[in-house]
């Protein structure tokens, strides 16, 4: 019998670099998701402090999603071509500055604009951090565990953000959370300067300016239409925004098809793992993030939950998701099989929430939320892995940007659909049930499609 040689240990300097990259990257993702979810439990206080009306309140919640979705793919491409550390540091410094503006804002417009800037800064941090992790960890078990840890920070950040914001608001003011998060962003910038190494693609490309403009403006129009549409989908401005989004996004596809150095190589959509990465992220947003985000509002209206009670309910889902994602990094399931399993378990959890608007049971709801958390964790770990393994070497940040763009668009569409479905139903309870049945169907279809895609690569 022939024994294989022992695996050579990494030099201490390389091991320290990997550890630092993973620590800073995970801390950045945790911070971004905490900041993303922070206003959820302090919206009444924030709106009162800024003098915001109903439309302003919607933008207080969704301004950061607009900034994220509109810039994630661009940020990832810039990181790969011009330096992942550089883009990360620009993003973390911008997040610190925008957080200070949020904390000191005297009116709704300034606050919302600062949240949009926070979204762009967060996009830079998310895409660059996963790109740096993929560069530091070679394909195989080490990268699977590292990307699973990164994916776990999504659930952890969503868990920690709302209660931290609520507690700080009780201690002082709703503004306090932005001072704290801004300070953490500044510390992360310093840590990045001292501990991160620069990396970029071996063959960097020139910036695809027409593609950047078409995609950014198209996604901005789409997200603005989805946000404004909650006040009335048939208004002239909303219809015009949807039309502009369709034209601009079609122009983006045409530009990328003809470009010699496209920001998004359209041939990637012929790769099953890339399709699974984008489709799975979109389905996760539609079937999990959207309905679960709106459920927090439903239980406050239907059952009189206090904001902290609603945050505690949401934390069941998000905290289980964080743990499940870390455990998923230790499994040997192929990425697409793990994604399909996560979506299937999430679909079962969605069905378990039927009837929650008419009759609340903590036991039954908690069991369903645990199922959704397990499914979310499996899916998040698989999506982080697929997003870097489904693209060419050196384009990991772009892969991360494309994946997360789909996730946040799916989440925004999911919330808009949830609001429309519940609002159009005869009763809120009936509408909520329709919402969860639809979410379960979408998740189940996503699971089937993830398995049906024939994989021709080792990464999926």
Note down, in words, how this protein is organized:
- By secondary structure, the protein is mainly α.
- The chain folds into 2 domains: 14-196 and 263-452, MFS general substrate transporter like domains (Growth Hormone, Chain: A); 209-262, no CATH class.
- Helix content is 78%, strand content 0%.
- The protein has 15 helices and no strands.
- It has helices at residues 12-37, 43-50, 54-82, 84-104, 108-136, 141-171, 176-195, 209-228, 236-258, 272-303, 307-328, 335-352, 362-389, 396-424, 428-452.
- Helix 2 (43-50) packs across helix 3, helix 3 packs antiparallel against helix 8 (209-228) and helix 12 runs antiparallel to helix 15.
- The longest helix is centred in the middle third of the chain and has 32 residues, at 272-303.
- The radius of gyration is 21 Å and the shape is globular.
- It starts with 11 loop residues before the first helix and ends in an 8-residue tail after the last helix.
- 58% of the residues are buried.
- Residues 1-8 and 456-460 have low confidence and may be disordered.
- InterPro entries: MFS, MFS_dom, MFS_trans_sf.
- The chain crosses the membrane at residues 20-38, 58-75, 87-114, 120-137, 149-171, 177-196, 208-226, 232-253, 274-298, 310-328, 340-362, 368-388, 408-428, 434-453.
- It is a multi-pass membrane protein.
- Keywords: Membrane, Transmembrane, Transmembrane helix.
- Its main location: membrane.
């Amino acid at each position: 019998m022939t024994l294989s040689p022992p695996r050579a240990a990494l030099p201490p300097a390389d091991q320290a670099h990997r550890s630092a990259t993973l620590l800073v990257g995970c801390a950045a993702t945790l911070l971004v998701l905490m900041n993303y979810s922070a206003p959820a439990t302090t919206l009444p206080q924030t709106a009162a402090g800024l003098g915001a009306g109903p439309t302003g309140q919607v933008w207080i919640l969704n301004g950061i999603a607009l900034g994220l979705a509109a810039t994630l793919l661009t940020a990832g491409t810039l990181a790969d071509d011009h330096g992942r550390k550089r883009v990360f540091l620009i993003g973390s410094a911008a997040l610190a500055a925008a957080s200070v503006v949020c904390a000191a804002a005297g009116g709704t417009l300034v606050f919302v604009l600062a949240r949009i800037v926070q979204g762009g800064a967060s996009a830079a941090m998310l895409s660059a951090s996963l790109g740096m992790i993929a560069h530091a960890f070679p394909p195989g078990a080490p990268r699977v565990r590292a990307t699973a840890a990164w994916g776990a920070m999504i659930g952890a950040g969503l868990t920690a953000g709302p209660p931290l914001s609520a507690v700080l608001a009780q201690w002082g003011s709703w503004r306090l959370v932005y001072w704290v998060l801004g300070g953490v962003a500044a510390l992360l910038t310093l840590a990045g300067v001292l501990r991160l190494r620069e990396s970029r693609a071996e063959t960097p490309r020139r910036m695809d300016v027409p593609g950047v403009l078409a995609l950014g403006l198209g996604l901005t129009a789409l997200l603005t239409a989805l946000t404004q549409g909650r006040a009335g989908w048939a208004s002239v401005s909303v219809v015009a925004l949807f039309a502009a989004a369709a034209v601009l996004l079609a122009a983006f596809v045409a530009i990328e098809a003809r470009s010699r150095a496209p920001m998004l190589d359209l041939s990637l959509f012929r790769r099953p793992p890339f399709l699974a990465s984008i489709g799975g992220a979109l389905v996760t947003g539609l079937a999990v993030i959207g309905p679960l985000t709106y459920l927090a509002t439903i239980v406050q209206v239907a059952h009189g939950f206090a904001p902290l009670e609603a945050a505690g309910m949401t934390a069941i889902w998000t905290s289980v998701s964080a743990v499940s994602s870390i455990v998923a990094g230790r499994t040997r399931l192929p990425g697409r099989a793990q994604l399909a399993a996560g979506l299937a378990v999430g679909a079962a959890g969605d069905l378990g929430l039927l009837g929650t608007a008419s009759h609340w049971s903590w036991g039954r709801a908690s069991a369903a939320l645990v199922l959704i958390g397990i499914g979310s964790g499996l899916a998040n770990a698989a999506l982080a892995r697929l997003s870097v393994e489904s693209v060419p070497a050196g384009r990991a940040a772009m892969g991360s940007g494309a994946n997360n763009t789909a996730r946040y668009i799916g989440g925004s569409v999911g919330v808009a659909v949830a609001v429309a479905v519940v609002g159009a139903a005869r009763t809120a309870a009936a509408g909520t049930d329709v919402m969860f049945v639809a979410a379960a169907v979408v998740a189940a279809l996503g699971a089937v499609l993830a398995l049906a895609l024939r994989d021709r690569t080792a990464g999926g």
